[in-house]
Amino acid sequence: MATLGNPLASVPISSNPTILTANNEQKSNPSTVPILIDKCANKKHLKQLHAHMLRTGLFFDPPSATKLFTACALSSPSSLDYACKVFDQIPRPNLYTWNTLIRAFASSPKPIQGLLVFIQMLHESQRFPNSYTFPFVIKAATEVSSLLAGQAIHGMVMKASFGSDLFISNSLIHFYSSLGDLDSAYLVFSKIVEKDIVSWNSMISGFVQGGSPEEALQLFKRMKMENARPNRVTMVGVLSACAKRIDLEFGRWACDYIERNGIDINLILSNAMLDMYVKCGSLEDARRLFDKMEEKDIVSWTTMIDGYAKVGDYDAARRVFDVMPREDITAWNALISSYQQNGKPKEALAIFRELQLNKNTKPNEVTLASTLAACAQLGAMDLGGWIHVYIKKQGIKLNFHITTSLIDMYSKCGHLEKALEVFYSVERRDVFVWSAMIAGLAMHGHGRAAIDLFSKMQETKVKPNAVTFTNLLCACSHSGLVDEGRLFFNQMRPVYGVVPGSKHYACMVDILGRAGCLEEAVELIEKMPIVPSASVWGALLGACRIYGNVELAEMACSRLLETDSNNHGAYVLLSNIYAKAGKWDCVSRLRQHMKVSGLEKEPGCSSIEVNGIIHEFLVGDNSHPLSTEIYSKLDEIVARIKSTGYVSDESHLLQFVEEEYMKEHALNLHSEKLAIAYGLIRMEPSQPIRIVKNLRVCGDCHSVAKIISKLYNRDILLRDRYRFHHFSGGNCSCMDYW
Where do the PPR repeats lie (predicted)? Predict the structure, then answer.
């Protein structure tokens, strides 16, 4: 504390008249306090002034103490702890002081404290909250996402007759919208007699953020009809709604409206226009706007990078990246995530490796999460494991996003034990972490374990979402848990408040279909409250393949193609069903139809990681440098498995092949067999052979992999489009239920 001899060494004291105290200490005039506060440049100065005011008695002048406290509370978040100490020294804080403390906490990293201070005020203050109190405490409730607290505060607002206060009403609209309660937000909005621009903007923004862009545009049209004048914030919301609806026509009209009505265009509005054009697929409009923009920020550049990547023009995306004024990590992230999200994981990893060589930019959590996702797609566990080690060495805290990404990567790379290790290493888990681990157990065929984990999730009071139930139903499907699947599906809406969507119905049809309950599966589809998607009909078609129901398969395929006419997978499945039934004329007719329609079967592609390098094989591939050795090894494998009595399964041929030798040859060229052969050549006997295939593994390759695992005493982990198959000792983890 400063002494009287040097009361404020760093802050000059005004030469205004002073009052002598009994002990001859100087007491500054209260009117000097605002001047002194204005001269305080940091927290140290405020502390010195506080000491001076205590010594001179000025602190016990209520207005002076309030001014000092306000300066401490609102100067910076780092001063808030000190502000609380100042607050505690005020004998009887007035309502303004309470409001200021609530306001400061509501805008701080600890908004929950704002609610606690509000409760403390209700108990200790003799005055009831006023119209300034409620917007601050509503903001605190918004920041902590507490619907219950907000509803209680809303009730107090109504009881105190502040329901017509415009500022409070606007705060409530923002609160309910932020928490996804659009009905309550609109109810507050509709009761405002004289709405201001903030009212309109809050409700339009709420509809957009709440996934109701159509309602946002309807409200904008009503706004114009009521002669309310839109501003920049309004138009940002409108453009965002157009982007979500992919409504290029209205988006263009909105851009024209901005220009015609002289709405001032700042960088935020320019970026919103740019984002709308990109998401609506009009890269020409986006490029014209981008070139005209006098000011660009990282959002502008990354929007263009993402736009080009989404339409597959990766060269253009790279050119934009290369001419950026500075290579911000956000731009690297945009490029990596664009490749990863658009099915180009190899390119995403190449960009990450390039980033590693860049000395000026360091990966952040977003970079690592996107790269881990790319590793998961490719099955690149060596790089994924390296990133995990990097996270530990850099002391990066495992937040929910990184934890989820690591669990997903290890699960999809076939290392379930490491995924579980990551899961149990963290103390806090959100719904996505739990869901990722349930998905990992599901894809490895551990249905019971997935259900047990879901039960533990319930014990921790984490509320499951739609993704959780998709993963849980997949677990039931892969493990043949029909009764459990029915139970969870029927509990979704009444017990957990999750409305079943198309994916959930597809999973349920798959569960029933795999178990041979085809009639029940058809009945479920017929009773769906939503239009069955291609995935629903695909699940039924897949079940028909298992049980050879040609008539039902033809119906399911027909309905699937009505939904998605270019679905080549439907033709392939139906072709396999015909082949299994020996209807080769139908196979040929289907093949001819595909040819005439310009549809081609997606080529099978299998990848294997050896010493950190991903090797890819297509059907009949001979482009690999070791192609001669691979085919020689494949011949050896075929000879050895034939000696065990193996006979190829011809039903997996897409077209009729007359000669027996050619039938065998066609099946032996499948990509997963080439990958297994390469793994046997290049990997140590103690190493498991991990393979990722882009399509469902065929029955013949499944049988061959089982035999190889026994003959060569090797563990083979094969991930196809739907699940993992762990081959060991002549058996598969799926127990042939797949």
Answer: 196-230, 266-296, 297-331, 430-464
Q: What is the pTM of this model?
A: 0.74
Enter the tokens of residue 415. Answer: 């290392």
Q: Please, are residues 69 and 86 in contact by the beta-carbon 8 Å criterion? A: yes
Q: Phi/psi zone of residue 322: left (φ > 0), alpha (ψ -120 to 50 degrees), beta?
A: alpha
What does DSSP assign to residue 474? H
Question: Which residue type, as a one-letter code, is found at position 107?
Answer: S
Contacts of 435 (CB under 8 A, 6+ apart): 464, 465, 467, 468, 471
Amino acid type, 526: E
Determine contact, residues 339/309, Cβ cutoff 8 Å. Answer: yes
Examine the pLDDT at 326 and tell me if it is beyond 80.
no
Dmax (CA) of the chain: 118
pLDDT of residue 572: 85
Per the DSSP assignment, residues forming a β-bridge with 689 are 716
Q: Give dist(CA 534, CA 604) in Å, integer.
A: 21
pLDDT at 663: 45
Quick: pLDDT tens for 246-283. Answer: 999 999 999 999 999 999 999 999 999 999 999 999 99
pLDDT tens digits, one per residue of 497-525: 999 999 999 999 999 999 999 999 999 99
- Give CB contacts under 8 A, 24+ apart, made by 527-530: 530/501, 530/502, 530/505
- Domains observed in the chain: 410-597 (1.25.40.10), 621-732 (no CATH)
| Distance in angstroms (rounded) separating the CA atoms of residues 706 and 716 | 9
- Report the relative pairing of strands 689-693 and 716-719 from DSSP bridges: parallel
- Residue at token pair 């790319």: 374
Taking CB atoms within 8 Å and a gap of at least 24, the contacts of 102-108 are 102/133, 102/136, 102/137, 102/140, 103/73, 103/74, 103/136, 103/139, 104/73, 104/74, 104/80, 105/80, 105/140, 106/136, 106/137, 106/139, 106/140, 106/143, 107/77, 107/139, 108/77, 108/80
